[in-house]
Write a structure and sequence with these properties.
The structure is a single chain. Helices cover 5% and strands 40% of the residues. The protein is mainly beta. The chain has a single domain, classed as Kelch-type beta propeller (Neuraminidase, 6 Propeller). Strand 16 and strand 17 form a beta hairpin. The two termini are 31 Å apart.
């Protein structure tokens, strides 16, 4: 458990070199812009033009509802994913305060409806893969420039401080990271700096924390990044994502069977997208948010692993991409993200979905 005194000391050291805005001084706006610190509202005309809510999937009988929760301490996006540890939501890295290489680590306590600061990454990055294995938070790879220039750095939060672990065999960002049978699976991702060298990869790497080593497994059928990925009943689901660019988003849905080391196709995602959230809630996989060409998706579509079918629920109130999404208790929490296509605008918006 992190003590308040140690946490504040660690944060004081980490934040010493950051501007006042990055230290959460005063009241931060709901929205911010990478190049303009004075932006306090998102361009609503662009939001209206780009936001999409209608799903092609049949509507579920219980549409559910969205509610507003405590906003992030400051606008953030391009964290790539979020994860849960001890009943709290963890969001690591991303864009914020006019930079794309933030080491931020915010933790949401749903019981208090409050965000807390936690030990920051040793280096800032965006699109960092996060995953809990063996009760410890891991941070894998990421980009150190705007959605490009990946590195190999990997860390584990050991007690009250991050510790470096075996680096990735090759630089990669926007990797999907999940736990299965005590191992960390890092799947897909993007490599390279600019087009045409920048591309999605089909890599499937596995990290064993007991021996601090990486190995390989069967690659994905198609290289993708910015996917929605999670483990359900021992099978790893990889849903949607981009193939080299959000202009060529995929609706592919595959599961990985670790017993046979093979990939199996499943019913495709009704709305092709990337940078979306994917969480297990009430036995179904809920996928929300994401982006495409001049589109930011609010669709909230749920997959039934038993029936191998999709249905749609109440869409997000504020469509976003590059967000953090987790399920805690009877709510799906969706925080941060970009409300317009691309990475220019960040948000502190935090909304939660429930079927209750």
């Amino acid at each position: 458990m992190i003590s308040r005194r140690s946490l504040l000391a660690a944060l004081g050291t980490a934040a010493a070199g950051l501007p006042a805005f990055a230290q959460h001084a005063g009241h931060d706006p709901v929205y911010s812009h990478l190049s303009d610190p004075n932006v306090k509202t998102a361009p609503t005309d662009t939001m209206k033009a780009q936001h999409v809510f209608d799903s092609p999937a049949p509507k579920a009988a219980n549409q559910g509802r969205w509610v507003t929760r405590a906003p992030l301490p400051l606008p953030r996006s391009e964290m790539a994913w979020a994860t849960t540890l001890n009943g709290r939501m963890h969001m690591v890295g991303g864009y914020g305060a006019q930079r794309v290489d933030r080491p931020y680590h915010h933790v949401y306590d749903p019981a208090a409806d409050k965000w807390l600061d936690a030990p920051q990454l040793p280096r800032g990055a965006n699109h960092v893969g996060v995953c809990v294995v063996g009760g410890k938070l891991h941070a894998i790879g990421g980009f150190v420039e705007q959605n490009r220039k990946p590195d190999t750095n990997c860390y584990v939060l050991d007690g009250e401080a991050w510790r470096a672990i075996a680096p990735l065999p090759r630089p990669c960002g926007a990797i999907a990271c999940v736990e299965r049978a005590g191992l960390l699976h890092a799947i897909g991702g993007a490599v390279g700096d600019t087009f045409p060298t920048k591309r999605s990869v089909d890599w499937h790497l596995v990290y064993d924390p007991r021996i601090d080593q990486w190995s390989t497994r069967a690659p994905m059928p198609t290289g993708r990044d910015h996917t929605g990925t999670l483990t359900v009943n021992g099978l790893i689901h990889v849903i949607g994502g981009r193939v080299d660019s959000f202009h060529t988003n995929s609706n592919l849905h595959h599961v990985y069977d670790g017993r046979e080391d093979k990939w199996i196709p499943r019913a495709p995602l009704p709305t092709a997208r990337s940078g979306h959230g994917a969480v297990l809630y009430r036995g179904k996989i809920f996928v929300m948010g994401g982006e495409g060409t001049n589109r930011v998706y609010g669709q909230n579509e749920a997959y039934d692993p038993v029936a191998d079918s999709w249905e749609s629920h109440a869409p997000m109130m504020t469509p976003r991409h590059g967000l953090g999404a987790v399920a805690i208790g009877d709510f799906i929490h969706v925080a941060g993200g970009g409300p317009i296509m691309g990475g220019s605008i960040q948000s502190a918006v935090h909304e939660a979905f429930t079927l209750g």
